[in-house]
Amino acid sequence: MPETVHMVSLGCPKNLIDSEVMAGLLARKGFRLTPEATEAAIILVNTCAFILPAREEAIETILRMAALKTPAGGHCRHLVVAGCLPQRYGAALARALPEVDLFLGVNEVPAVAVHLRRLLAGQTGRRNRTGKPTFLMDAGLPRLISTPAATAYLKIAEGCNNRCAYCVIPTIRGPYRSRPPEDILREAEALVGQGVRELIVTAQDTTAYGQDLPGRPALPGLLHDLASLKTLKWLRLLYTYPERLTDALFEVIAREPKLCKYIDMPIQHIDDDLLVAMHRRGNSALIRERIARARGMIPGVALRTSLIVGFPGETPSRFKRLHAFLAEARLDHVGIFTYSREEGTPAESRGPEISEATKQRRRGTLMVRQAGISEEINRTLIGTRQEILIEGPSAHPEYPFVGRCRRQAPDIDGVTYVRGGRLRAGAFVTRTILAADTYDLCAG
Ligand code: SF4
To answer: Which CATH number applies to 385-443?
Structure first.
């Protein structure tokens, strides 16, 4: 009987790819993966430790899974915690969570099956396996894709050199390491060969791609090569850094029909003093110029950003500037986060601090403002024809299927509900938009 493993993946798409690789390796080595935590002999939680809510979610999940180690709870014999949380807290985490049998840092992804076999054989070694982060995805590693239907993420680099003042990622994930273009293309080909039709290109900063490689291959060339994969239908780019959004990149997005006219450009704030304090490189003028340039060069482009409210020193007038910017920029999708003071980051000791209540209030104010803008933009789409990737059945009473159009990335943006009978998950259909609200569209 193969040993059963239940995996929980928390955090961002980059972490999800690590989980998919671990699942692929475990399946290859004879483990059986089960969606039921209660029937698993081993439970593996792949964690995120980016900000406080992510850590809270990780600890809650670990404790919930630990309850399945009791005779009344389930069959779990071993609980393993992997990813960013052990990588960040190492031995201190191991001391705080005695119910966990093994902690695997981000380097241990390729060795996961070896570690689990040792656990099952009762070989007690070091409980805490964390070291300098050097792991880089490669096409030789198997992956079990967990995203719906025809979509897969493609990680082109690991780590980050940007060192934004609030961010702990460079410490957890190490310096920026690009994968060689041939290796990325090999993985993309294999994914497309398995039926993937939408590839979503990710990294901590996709626009830094290639700067650390011989010959400095750049992102536009890589996107062009990926777009030439025959049966690929959509190619989508996430996590770009405004300063490195070049005309060459805009040109390839405008030119290649498979590239979604969609730019995810996290800017974090628009106040120049705060951008400097955040150690962000571009200023407000550059951000405005890049937005205008994107719109000029890519007709109909959907723009997404993420913002941080409550960074130390965000005075009422600086916040007002951000609020006014939403109305001025009229971006399609905006994610709004409250600042989380993170140990070991340059901003850790920065003041003056903003109270939690003010941060939440400011976030709420921006959310309300943006909701109106997103709804107005969505309403302008009524009557247009949109290509939609069907993801599966929906619970909507009038629109029995759910999917996404090119303007919508999975999980972070809204969805498109679709009318019609017998649509297959993974199919592409072109339909007219009939209705729209703040986040979602309805097509028939
Ligand atoms: S670009 Fe900045 S926010 Fe993003 S991962 Fe790198 S350091 Fe963190």
So the answer is: 2.40.50.140
